[in-house]
What we know:
Layout: H1 3-30, H2 39-47, H3 53-70, H4 72-81, H5 83-102, H6 109-139, H7 153-156, H8 159-183, H9 186-220, H10 226-248, H11 252-274, E1 277-279, E2 289-290, H12 291-294, H13 298-325, H14 332-342
Antiparallel strand pairs: 1-2
InterPro entries: Cyt-d_oxidase_su2
GO molecular function: electron transfer activity; metal ion binding; oxidoreductase activity, acting on diphenols and related substances as donors, oxygen as acceptor
Keywords: Cell membrane, Electron transport, Heme, Iron, Membrane, Metal-binding, Transmembrane, Transmembrane helix, Transport
Amino acid sequence: MDLAYLWFWIVGVLFVGYFVLDGFDFGVGMSLPFLGKDEVGKRQIINTIGPVWDFNETWLIVAGACLFAAYPEWYASLFSGFYLALLLILLALILRGVSFEYRHQREGLRWKKGFDTMIVIGSVLPALLWGVAVANLVQGVPLDENHEYTGSLLTLLNPYGLLGGITLVLVLFLHGLYFIGLKTDGQVHEDAKRLATRVGFITVVVAAAFLIWTIFIAAAHEAPLLPFVIAAAALAAVALLLSMFFHVKEREGWAFTAGIFTVALAVLTLWMSMFPNVMRSSTDVAFSLTIENASSTDYTLTIMSWAALIFLPLVLAYQGWTYWVFRKRVTRSRIEKAELVNH
């Protein structure tokens, strides 16, 4: 396989990893206004992702770095054209990270509520804008003959793009609720189960509409991988329904696992819908950025391939070990004991 095509799939896998792992972080952050009736409950929710949220975000850094090195033309067009959307994502992620670190530094109610609000914003906004951005890459964006984006942020907020954003928010919200149900006990656990049931039914309807629309767009673009797009979309739908089934049966681990497959297959559906373009031009298809005309030299890609072969297994092993160490539930009694010790 040509290295340029190989790296298209490697970058895709990195983004799948990012949306799966940081995705449940976003979902946990979105749940704060609905779960946690008191301070102990809110700390219980936040502590479910406390040891892992920052490491989950490194998948985005790695994916962005690989995108820059493997496809400099794509990186330049994407980051200049989607500048405002990506800047808002970055600011929201900064707000969320700061809030996790500073929320517990003072005991004032206004102080904590302020940071709780920033956690929610820092979870909803990136999920929404990532969904909008990726959906527009599938649909096509206005590019000129120099591969420069000629639209604005409002151009991206079209019906399909907005539906993609709303779908991702709902899917990740549900993903996070499954994680909370898996990692907590007591009132938070019960409230997360009830909320996941309500959110799940809405998510099924919205996600089905988005996946069907995506298939029609891929068919209209005569996507070479259309049969695989349809198969991945169908499997994503099955995985979502299975997650709901396991959730109702109170099989929390299986529900969360099915949620992982839902996110992964949904992102893969969008990724395959783009192929062989990386940014399709809605102005003139001849102006599109493709895997071949956007990639780096074979020499660069060869060096990157060896680096990935050596270091990616180490990163995966370390992250797997991290999750194993922090695999236990975050119990309410443990947080209450910690509060007594601190006071």
